[in-house]
Amino acid sequence: MNPQMIRNEVLSALKGIAPELEIEQLRPDRSLREEVDLDSMDWLRFIEALNRSLGIAIPESDYQHVDTLNKLIAYLGQKG
Amino acid sequence: MIEFKLPSLGADMDEGTLLEWKVRPGDVVKPGQVIAVVDTAKAAIDVECWHDGTVSQLLIDIGTKVPVGTAIAWLLEPGESPQSVRRTSTAAPLLIEEQAPSGRRPRISPAARKRAAESGVSTGDLKGHGPHGVITLEDIETAARVAHPPAPDQAMRHTIAAAMSRSKREIPHYYLSETIALDKALAWLQAHNAQNTLQERLLPSVLLLKAVALALRDYPQLNGFWLDNDFKPALDTDLGVAITLRQGGLVAPVLHHVADTSLTHLMSELASLVERARSGSLRSSELGGAGITVTQLGDQGVDSVLGVIYPPQVALVGFGRISERPWVKDGQLCVMPTVISSLSADHRVSDGHYGARFLGEVRRLLQTPEAL
Prior knowledge:
Chain A is an all-alpha fold. In chain A, about 60% of the residues lie in helices and about 0% in strands. Chain A has four helices and no strands. Chain B folds into two domains: about 1-75, CATH 2.40.50.100; about 175-370, 2-Layer Sandwich (Chloramphenicol Acetyltransferase), CATH 3.30.559. In chain B, about 25% of the residues lie in helices and about 25% in strands. Chain B has helices spanning about 110-120, 135-145, 150-170, 185-195, 205-220, 265-280, 350-365; strands at about 1-5, 15-20, 30, 35-40, 45-50, 55-60, 65, 70-75, 175-180, 225, 230-235, 240, 245, 250, 255, 280-285, 290-295, 315-320, 325-330, 330-345. In chain B, the strands form five sheets. In chain B, strands 9, 12, 15, 17, 18, 19 and 20 form a seven-stranded mixed beta sheet that branches. In chain B, strands 7-2-4-5-16 form a five-stranded mixed beta sheet. Chain B is globular, with a radius of gyration of 23 Å.
């Protein structure tokens, strides 16, 4: 799966949790949880949504490697 | 014949507008079945039935706003038939809009009369809900809201304002806080989450909620209600959970029997509650009855929260951010994941010493996470 397709899946999962999200406003090098105002429950639902759409279950120990949009897309690209 | 009344929708929601009937006359209903959807200042709520029976008559129309406790339907008990029931009362259900008998001067409390003059509410048309039908301040405020309905987001603010103002006006709060080491709890949680599937992953919140519930068993004066100048202990560990809504505001729906629920089950119930609170599909049984509320603001990045008690409850437990902080262990300075817990409690019911022992028990329970 190419980075653009991964990006689309990630953004669609984010939209499912934060419908009011404006993609253009999202800074890809900032903390994703702060940018989208995701609490720990939102974050877990987001990780679950990615698992459903991409088949990748991100372990908690890897959360530090997926904390921005750019890092998350790169990580999913490696694992996919 | 059972008079089905609009149930309590939480301490701060005293009326609802009927959006939809889910049943029709002749339908057989059972406990837990959703019979109507009602809109409140905070969210649309599925109203559940508490009886076995058959719907006999629906008493209010869609779009009607009624106070909590109003009869909204008649149900036949099992074995009853419409013919076997002699209608003892054919009075119309109590509606806010109902006219008082004309030519009678309304009986009204002085505070209500003053508020009515200020808000331009005509008292002649009002039905009083005070003793002997006296029109009370609350009746005037309800009527004022009906006459000038606020926008939905404002309605949420007004609801929170009313409950929190009442709390600060009536409840003599005292506040305590305690920093709790979470090294053992988080290590246990990480191991659990690494061994289990994504769907079985637990959040630290669940451990904190369970510890609070277990500690409440030993400290019942923090779990209950202040009603009629007296403390009524809660019968179970039903915890209100403050949930922030993305569009602003918050609701505090109930997790039931928390002390007797496994962590895994608690996690799925909490996830479901958060999701439904945010999508606006809570059930009436999830809105009332919590004996205490727990608020966790750690995700917003604050160290601690000293909360405002949700009347008629008598205590609120707060948790701030779980963070690594300097700590002294066995005489050595080290880095420790900790959380600052807090207790806001009603001094009419308990004292600081009692509250301190409760927080100490929460701390102790979190040192043996495998036993939670």
